[in-house]
């Protein structure tokens, strides 16, 4: 049987589409039916062409020095570029594995949304943490993503865990993690959960108020306590200081009450907010924590633990990258915490480990072309920029941001609504609760003729599957013309996504498919080990926390 030859380089998106149509239409008796692996060379060529369209400059290097700016692109190279959802990233070996796994799922008839989980990404992030913050013990925030295989991967790597409830404590202990590696990091604890922590020997916990101290004295007097202080988290995606943290003026009184109750306050905790975008926040927080350490030492109760909380980025961007944040934190600790103090440093990273491990695939289940009111024109400029603006395609009457001609009546523009089988009540609750802006790309399945929106393509919106009008994943996206049955995928969806999802309208949360490394035998894969361990525990009726890693 004759196989279809690979396309020639260079390859434009139009050429790519023609090649794909040929690939999937020629299924005669003398032509080999292509497998999903056969799509990857084509995908490589398309991405090589689209690489100049990738959003933003290169990510900064680990040395804390931004990478050199890319060479200027010609107008032809940037034709069709868009900063909206729908741009593509360069193809790497790891990304190729993820794409091939998604294509495999679609090839066998997948209809429901699913995650591709890359546990090696978590291992790489753990190695990066130890490279840049070697003196700080990470305690993964289990609330971020409680996937058992992810938890087991981090546990095998020596990571501790930040738990916020009885259920999270149970889940981590069930994997065999010793109680000594857990931090009960909820400042306001339900009494029954606090009793459970005491029974299981989870002793390290936090507080930020007098009432909590009395509760702890009654239910878990053997606790080792960290005083959660309020810090500046104004640069974070999710602000926490309006709910948790003792102001500086209250710290001395709280330490005094703890001493009267004979409770052991061993250190200070803070959190600069989830998804922080400023290294300055860590500098300020460390300085405030050092002041409390000095207060405690002056009162005859020296401290030994500093918990620097979370807020570390899950994915580097030109604006926020981990190397710079780590450098700022290291410098602050060196300045305010002399080595002779002998302080143990811990942290509570969540999205830092989880974000890049999950890629979500969702299919288009509906499509509708709508007419929407055109936004009013911007006020006329009052300076010399008017001439430049009048020449740009974005300001021409009758065009949208992609340069599409609007042939509809004046004041109305054409848009496309795509409906996918996951939304705000499922994985994309992060749009509401975590202030996320998901990236969206096109999976090169049968019938797809372009990975990016060509010039002239109308803007679109991407909607979830529920009957709620708020269920909008992307209000303004730039995607090529797609049909019902096409698939989109969303990288970096491992943090605060399905963990807060629901089954509203009877919609199921996505399935999980674990990526198997080519260099790793299946038996050694953390997901395999996790499933085998839990199955053996059920078969032997063994108490979960008797398993040790």
From TrEMBL:
Q: Which GO terms describe its molecular function?
A: ornithine decarboxylase activity
Question: Which residues participate directly in catalysis?
Answer: 467 (proton donor)
Name the Enzyme Commission number(s) assigned to this protein. 4.1.1.17
Q: Which positions fall inside the Orn/DAP/Arg decarboxylase 2 N-terminal domain?
A: 123-355
Q: Cell division among the record's keywords?
A: no
Q: GO BP, one example?
A: putrescine biosynthetic process from arginine, via ornithine
Q: Which residue windows does the record flag with biased composition (Low complexity)? A: 383-393
- Alphabetized CDD domains for the sequence: PLPDE_III_ODC
Positions of modified residues (N6-(pyridoxal phosphate)lysine): 143
Comp. bias intervals (Pro residues): 373-382
Q: What pathway or pathways are given for this protein in its record?
A: Amine and polyamine biosynthesis; putrescine biosynthesis via L-ornithine pathway; putrescine from L-ornithine: step 1/1
Is-annotated flag, keyword Lyase?
Answer: yes
Q: Which cofactor does it need?
A: pyridoxal 5'-phosphate
Q: Where is this region: Disordered?
A: 54-89, 371-409
| PROSITE patterns membership | ODR_DC_2_1, ODR_DC_2_2
Which reactions appear under catalytic activity for this entry?
A: L-ornithine + H(+) = putrescine + CO2
Family annotation (Pfam families): Orn_Arg_deC_N (PF02784), Orn_DAP_Arg_deC (PF00278)
Q: Where is the Orn/DAP/Arg decarboxylase 2 C-terminal domain?
A: 406-494
Indicate the family of this protein: Belongs to the Orn/Lys/Arg decarboxylase class-II family.
- Tell me what this protein is called: ornithine decarboxylase
